[in-house]
């Protein structure tokens, strides 16, 4: 049993080490792809806290992702770089505030009603940025200058430099993974596990389950806002599709593909989903049939779910192990 934690930790440390070394081994498009996958992994981790760890199936998670992206774009001054010290907390805070309002209403429902209400709130946010001048309409908004972290006039971190942006995204993924693992090992995390197993029994034991669910809903949204913030920095552009139900469905597929109930599964699922998408879109591999990449991706995901009901993370465990 004493060896079990190391058996789980070492592959994670090795994976993060490989990610840290990637810029020295690859360049150009592949570095951009690695950043995209790491950002999606943060997004998937945020939803895993709700679905896999608490049993709250949210189908409007893209709203928080998009709010974080739009926040940094709208709050950055024109013609100059904004400050990382306040645009990052503002983006996460904006996603958290919206989640507080959404959660206060939606968490009073259960099952399919909760799913539909979160979807409805996400669509409301989508149409706000799509149909009003605030979000630039369907054309979206460009972020011409990426934030910098400076102290006393000295720049510590310039996210306009690809290497520094990559390192920042890598650090954010590591921080989110560690913070999520620590949270789930805490008393708060044990309460979430109890709510997922039997919420009625937890209430009978004296736990205010609504408060716990609302708290993790806000935490999850803030992490999704961080992912959206990083995505806006990577692309230098945001559009309403970041808040669409398609995006919410995609991240839900990621955690199912990776394996529900495991943080590593969320990260594995994000990597697998993004890499499969890039593979099937490659004309060098599939030629003219690459335009039907969504069909191939869908069939592949169905095959994965049918053959590996525990997800990709199930391959890392012996049969019958948790």
Automatic annotation (TrEMBL):
Major localization listed first in the record, in broad terms: membrane
The keyword rRNA-binding is assigned to this record: no
Domain of life: Bacteria
Keywords: Cell membrane, Membrane, Transmembrane, Transmembrane helix
Record's keyword annotation contains Zinc: no
Subcellular location field: Cell membrane
Residue intervals passing through the bilayer: 12-31, 38-64, 84-105, 112-129, 165-184, 205-231, 251-276, 297-316
Its membrane topology: Multi-pass membrane protein
Protein's recorded name: Branched-chain amino acid ABC transporter permease
Lineage of origin: Bacteria, Pseudomonadati, Pseudomonadota, Betaproteobacteria, Burkholderiales
């Amino acid at each position: 049993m004493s060896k079990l934690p190391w058996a789980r930790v070492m592959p994670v440390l090795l994976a993060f080490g490989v990610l840290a070394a990637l810029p020295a081994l690859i360049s150009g498009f592949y570095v951009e792809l690695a950043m995209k996958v790491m950002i999606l992994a943060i997004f998937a981790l945020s939803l895993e806290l709700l679905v896999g760890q608490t049993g709250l199936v949210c189908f409007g998670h893209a709203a928080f992702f998009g709010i974080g992206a739009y926040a940094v774009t709208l709050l950055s001054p024109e013609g100059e770089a904004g400050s990382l010290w306040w645009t990052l907390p503002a983006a996460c805070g904006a996603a958290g505030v919206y989640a507080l309002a959404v959660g206060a209403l939606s968490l009073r429902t259960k099952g399919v009603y909760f799913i539909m209400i979160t979807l409805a709130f996400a669509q409301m946010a989508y149409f706000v940025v799509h149909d009003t001048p605030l979000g630039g309409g369907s054309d979206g908004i460009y972020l011409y200058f990426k934030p910098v972290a400076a102290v006393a006039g000295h720049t510590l971190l310039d996210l306009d430099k690809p290497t520094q942006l990559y390192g920042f995204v890598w650090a954010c993924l590591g921080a989110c993974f560690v913070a999520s693992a620590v949270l789930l090992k805490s008393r708060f995390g044990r309460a979430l596990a109890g709510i997922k197993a039997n919420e009625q029994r937890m209430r009978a034991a004296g736990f205010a389950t609504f408060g716990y669910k609302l708290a993790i809903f806000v935490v999850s949204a803030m992490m999704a806002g961080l992912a959206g913030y990083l995505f806006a920095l990577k692309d230098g552009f945001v559009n309403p599709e970041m808040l669409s139900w398609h995006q919410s469905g995609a991240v839900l597929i990621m955690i199912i593909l990776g394996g529900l109930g495991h943080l590593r599964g969320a990260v594995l699922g994000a990597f697998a989903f993004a890499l499969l998408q890039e593979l099937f879109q490659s004309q060098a591999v599939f030629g003219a049939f690459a335009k039907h990449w969504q069909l191939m991706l869908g069939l592949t995901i169905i095959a994965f779910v049918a053959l590996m009901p525990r997800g990709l993370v199930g391959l890392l465990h012996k049969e019958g192990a948790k």
